[in-house]
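Problem: given the chain below (241 residues), write out its structure.
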Amino acid sequence: MSALTRRLARWSVIAASLIGAAGCATGPSVPPAVSPPLAATPSLVEVKREVSTYVDSGRYEAEVSAVVDQAAAFLESRVPRGGKLAIVLDIDETALSNLPSIRANDYGFIITGPCDLPRGPCGLLAWIGMARAEPIKPVLTLARLARQRGVAVFFLTGRPERLREATERNLQGAGYEWTGVLLKPDALNTQSAVEFKAAERKKLVDQGYTIIVNMGDQMSDLEGGFAERTYKLPNPFYFVP
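Solution.
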């Protein structure tokens, strides 16, 4: 081995030692970052089971009653101040319950086709035509209280005008009385619920009414103004923008 080769070998050893020492001086190596586990995607089966438990346990009915009690208390306190007063109520999952048809469809949404109860499937239009929806009892009590206190009762729904006969027949069979039932004109099927319902409430205000209670199961039933108080009922079944 030549002198040059021996010097290069010694420098290699020295360099390796320095690199090793430098590595030790910086402490142990940092393990690679581990991403947190992703939240488990809810199982549709589990969600349906939770909704069924929520309804069957009585929690759904109790929460509806709690909201309606607040509205009734405000109505009683507001009536003595006078005015041409009115309340506005949505229909589906507010005044009337579609739960039998919803369950027959395993919480799915089917518009057309026959309604085969209790087995299913149950088309929504056929179900409405049957006029068999039961009243949501606390809301029925509220409507009756309003009429006893001289307050006008209006139903305001996104149901199309062509379903008026079946809708009014169902409301009457469920025990409701009213001043007016406002349905969406068939030509306005593309208009949002907020746009339609806010405009209809404004028409009532323009007629001299003061809407003291506006109640629905969707925020789109309530948004847009023209009511002193709004009350949102729970709806774990569907969402209407």
